[in-house]
Write a sequence for this structure.
């Protein structure tokens, strides 16, 4: 973490965030975790994968997650996404089911790797970018949230006609940083099996996102993987 390996447009936009005391404290925490031989996910080079895959000025849709997956080889820096060859976690299974319902011709893909979305301008952002192996939420409230809240603020402030997809109460709490007059905010229950029945099913967020993009002269996302 001594050198921040992040795509240049983001490095410029987030320069002040990197200089904040909360980020210095976060770096110290992560160094300490590694010194104590804690396994951290995702691997170091993938911590900023969401940013490296989707430059600031190419972002058109933001999907917000909370925490990286904490199982072996699952997390690779993109919320809800898993590496090739890894079984789909329950929330991702439900995301694919909703896509099948919402997007004509969508078929469940062989891999849960969502990199193709990020290459089209879908920022798959977790609020916390690291986690200790097998300990969900273990890196929350260590400084990541200050950083990712600033990401949302800057996107809202400096861009127009973005789509923010907020599933579940945690993601929805971030709507305070988004100018609803400039952007589309889509909210529903979380795709987790514990809550999907409360309004995730048939939310049509993927087709609604594309309709909004097209209305504003922006290339829609090909959600098929």
């Amino acid at each position: 973490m001594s050198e921040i390996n992040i795509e240049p447009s983001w490095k410029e936009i987030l320069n002040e965030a990197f200089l904040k005391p909360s980020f210095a404290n976060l770096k110290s925490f992560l160094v300490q975790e590694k010194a104590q031989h804690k396994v951290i996910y995702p691997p170091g080079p993938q911590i900023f994968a969401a940013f490296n895959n989707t430059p600031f000025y190419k972002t058109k849709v933001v999907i917000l997650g909370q925490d990286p997956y904490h199982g072996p080889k699952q997390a690779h820096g993109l919320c809800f996404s898993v590496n090739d060859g890894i079984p789909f976690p329950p929330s991702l299974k439900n995301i694919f089911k909703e896509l099948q319902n919402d997007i004509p011709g969508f078929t469940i893909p062989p891999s849960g790797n969502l990199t193709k979305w990020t290459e089209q301008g879908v920022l798959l952002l977790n609020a916390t970018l690291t986690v200790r192996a097998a300990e969900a939420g273990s890196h929350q409230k260590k400084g990541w949230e200050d950083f990712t809240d600033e990401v949302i603020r800057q996107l809202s402030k400096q861009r127009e006609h973005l789509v923010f997809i907020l599933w579940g109460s945690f993601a929805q709490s971030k709507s305070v940083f988004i100018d609803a007059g400039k952007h589309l905010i889509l909210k529903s229950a979380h795709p987790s099996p514990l809550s999907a029945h409360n309004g995730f099913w048939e939310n049509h967020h993927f087709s609604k996102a594309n309709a909004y993009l097209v209305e504003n002269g922006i290339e829609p996302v090909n959600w098929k993987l």
In short: The CA atoms of residues 22 and 63 lie 24 Å apart. The mean pLDDT is 96. The radius of gyration is 17 Å. The longest strand covers residues 61-65.
